[in-house]
Description:
Layout: E1 4-13, E2 21-26, E3 50-52, H1 54-62, H2 65-68, E4 73-77, H3 85-97, E5 101-106, H4 115-118, E6 123-127, H5 133-140, H6 145-156, E7 161-167, H7 175-185, E8 191-198, H8 204-210, H9 228-234
Parallel strand pairs: 2-4, 4-5, 5-6, 6-7, 7-8
Antiparallel strand pairs: 1-2, 1-3
Helix pairs in contact: 1-3
Amino acid sequence: MTKGLIHSIESMGLVDGPGIRTVVFLQGCRLRCRYCHNPDTWSMQNPKAIMLSPEELLQKLSRFRNYYGKTGGVTFSGGEPLLQPEFLQEALAFCKKAGIHTCLDTAGCGLGDDTKILQNTDLILMDIKHHTKEGYEKITGHSPDASLRFLDTAMDMGIPMWIRHVVVPGLTDSEEHLIGLEAYLRTLRNIQRIDLLPYHTMGVHKYAAMKIPYPLDGVPALDSHALDTWNKRLNRNCIQP
């Protein structure tokens, strides 16, 4: 029986897709984003993680279905959920069969062909790290090739996407960078919404607890309203759901 390694489950997520959602955080991620606030999800050896089968997960989700209404559902996040493809594929299929709206919060860095996973995905929250190869590698420590392949597959399958991009002072907050990002996003299809997310420092304590250096030590958090104008600008031409 396929089982997934789950870091945690948030029962009432309000910012991880439309409506009220249960957010399932899967363990494991290969990227080492400089601003990551969940370093405890990186390793597949987390002793605090729990193992659940797709059936067991669906039983947990059923407790919250009354809150979903017409717009809510389940969002699979991480870590990088694509690193557990068999479990994710089966869990998404169970949710779809049960009539639960499915959302995938991902950077697109999985293990290869994600077609079967996306067949039961209603919405993708796509984390765009950077719009250039060099910038992507500087932020994540990895090549963007896997992410670009995932994007191509998602666009070819016509799956709606919400784009997310973290704006970090001194790293991705310049006007030049945002203009370049705007031009890049125009080349993508099926985009319903774009969210520029202000960098925050809420995960810094986790690095201290894990005794690993924080890559952006000393970089201040970005004001939550600093990106309002750019968010409006980028969303002008989005396809409305």
